[in-house]
Amino acid sequence: MIQAHCETKNSRNFSIAMVWINGGSNMDVEEKKGINQILCSLLTRGCKDFDNLAFSDYVDSHGAELNIETVEDGMLISLKSLDEHFNKLLPLLNLIINEPSLLNKQFQNVKESTINTLKKDKENPFNITFEKWRKIVYLKHSYAFNSYGYEEDISKITHNDILSEYENFKDRNKYLISNNLIIQNKSFGLINQNIDQNKITNNLESKNHKHESNILDRFASTNQKSNQIILMIGNQTCPLSNADYLPLKILESYLSYGMSSILFKLFREKNGLTYEVGVYNPFRKENSPFLVYLSVSNKNALLAFEILSQLWGELLSSLIFDNDIYLAKIKLKSSFLSSNQTLDEILQRKVRYLGYKLDQNYNLLKKIEYITAEDILNTTKKYLSKPFLSIYGDEKICNEINKLWIKNF
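RE: above sequence
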């Protein structure tokens, strides 16, 4: 079901329409990982009345932007143009969703392009380390897999598989949001499919999928001759809708926002140890990942891990000082406010909220003040007391870190 919502229009001379489709790579079936990424890419490669070149020319000739992306929980389609052209371009959303061409020739092109992208990703040690991390953290859950899929799976996907997946795609709930008032009067009718809510698949229902593991199962290592060691440590946590989400965001701010953050102070300012250091904590419909990542030279790797271990222990046993909490909240508020300065970010967040069944005006800023140091400590204990570690680099050093991992965790 497509549900349309309109944002109050400001003094802008351009309009944006975004469609969120429930069901992205979490709908990929075994041995066909990446099928929804391919389907998503095919939607803009021709539709009724337009072949792929005519479609691109029509969008470009109006100076418009049309972007489409597949993530774990869904697909996002974004159309942006000057107001004077918006009425002409808006029907494209209906066409690519309801009447795409999905030609075999274009499928083969997308398939080849996807495989090439995956080959490039294999050359990035951060991607390799993260792939190992999420596989041991999420096990067989859909978040364990790359949204782009895997070469061996992509090579098996056929054109008929895509056509079959599109039949599934048609029954997924869809949500439309825009800053243009025309949406209220016109576009809802253009792409409304009147889908029965009961047809939504159970795969999209939020559930607790944490699993109990011993310390050996919570460790993954990729041995490679390299001058750097990459470490990623953390766990899955909670959905955006959970009350624990904000304490974790404040913790993220305390750890990684700016040069006053604890990670910067420990690893860059005081010890000059790391090339890169930060926290990865995107929001998800189900249990979001929370991980700290480091990149250090081989000679500094053991010291860096010892410092990280000590910090982790302190986070699990001690309250963060009030002054640090106050600063972390200020930085988090600033981050939220900054994300509200561009219309693209505002609409993208709100349309995902709609897909997640949250109030699109869900206000996190009002709730931040009520979070205490005790809340953060309890949340940290709840989710991060048994972290998972993935490392990449020289085999000898990785083995030494493994010993420290067993000793410290």
